[in-house]
Structures are given as C-alpha cells and as structure tokens.
Specification:
With about 130 residues, this protein is mainly alpha-helical. The protein has a domain of about 90 residues: Orthogonal Bundle (Arc Repressor Mutant, subunit A), CATH 1.10.10. Helix content is about 65%, strand content about 10%. It contains six helices and three strands, in the order ααβααββαα. The relative contact order is 0.10. GO terms for molecular function: DNA binding. One of its GO terms (biological process) is regulation of DNA-templated transcription. InterPro entries: ArsR-like_HTH, HTH_HxlR, WH-like_DNA-bd_sf, WH_DNA-bd_sf. This is Transcriptional regulator, HxlR family.
Length: about 130
C-alpha cells in the first residue's frame, strides 16, 4: 500500500498557491483602476457635488497638478467609473459624474474609510 499523503499535500499546496496568485492578480487589477493618490479623492469629490466641473475639482484638490488631474480623470473615464459631458459653449464647459458602475464603489470607499478610522484608533492605543 502506497503513501499518497505527500502527493495529496503537494496538490493542496499547489491549489492554494494558484488561488492566492489569482486573488492577488485580481486585487492588483482593482488597484490599477482605483489606486493612486488622487482617484479615491476624485471619486468622493464628484459624488458629493455631482456633476462636478473641472475647475471645481481643481480648486478642491489644490495640491493636484492640472496635468495629473487630467490624466486621472481620463483613466477613470476609460475604466467606466466616471462619465464626461462636454457642452458646446464658450468658454467650454465639461462636467463629470459617476457612472452606475462608479456608484458601486461608494460602499467600498466607505469601508476603506471605516477601516482607516479603526486602524488609527488601534495605532494610537499602542
């Protein structure tokens, strides 16, 4: 009678590693969409003043360079998180709002903020 325990354990370990790697890739993809210093702040700002104009975002996030703001907004639009509406006016007016997909991020952002408050409380208790 052979001993298959090592083989079974190796198979289980391989499966766990495969699942961990897959989940890590999924999480990496999430952070490619909403990661970075400004994207969550932009999402929150647009939510609280929807629709939001470019100049309003620029004033609210005063430490954010205009080119970075443009890049971040384009990436969020590309990924389907926000939509951009251009009005044929002089001067040109552009408004941003969250898409239905973008709105699904609100509970996620709230959970991250809740975690941050708990983290800070625990860190100050140490």
């Amino acid at each position: 009678m052979g001993n298959n325990t090592n083989t079974e354990n190796e198979s289980i370990a391989e499966l766990k590693n495969k699942l961990l790697k897959q989940n890590s890739c999924d999480l990496s993809a999430v952070f490619k969409i909403i990661g970075g210093k400004w994207k969550i702040l932009l999402i929150k700002s647009i939510l609280h003043g929807c629709p939001k104009r470019f100049g309003e975002l620029r004033r609210e996030l005063e430490d954010l360079a205009q080119t970075t703001l443009t890049t971040q907004l384009r990436e969020l639009e590309r990924d389907g998180i926000i939509s951009r509406k251009i009005y044929a006016e002089t001067p040109p007016r552009v408004e941003y709002k969250l898409t239905p997909l973008g709105l699904t991020l609100i509970p996620v952002v709230q959970s991250l903020e809740d975690w941050w408050h708990q983290y800070n409380e625990q860190r100050t208790d140490v």
